[in-house]
Prior knowledge:
The protein is mainly alpha-helical. It is 39% helix and 8% strand. The protein has a three-stranded antiparallel β-sheet, with no helix packed on it. A hairpin with a 2-residue loop joins strand 1 (53-54) and strand 2.
Amino acid sequence: MPKNDRNGQAEIWGEQLGEVMGDLSPKMRAIFSICRYTGCRVSEARQLKADDVVGDCIVFRKATTKGKATRQVNIHPELKAVLSEAALPVRGYLFPGRSGEKPITRQACEKALRKVCDLIALKGHSTHSFRRT
């Protein structure tokens, strides 16, 4: 059963992923690409700081992970290209919120994805779909 009104399991992305990513802003494309290529949750990706990108790795701090364990993930070449296009900050949060002092909210990420999915008439996808793909 596809996801409906926050119930059920999120759909897995198919060939429509390219269209969705193309319609997202560079910042949202970067955050969802991190989720896709590292298997992290959107809440983990949105709380990344510039210091967490070390060489060819992304470090997810234990304070921001669900399992409360620090982990390090190599950056996929396609992810590296997406991150370079996004013009991310060199200090502070990679995805700052409106004030700049806190990271972007999970709700803002969900809203951006939902807007694109509604635009191209996709049902059953959520931020968790990137984790399942």
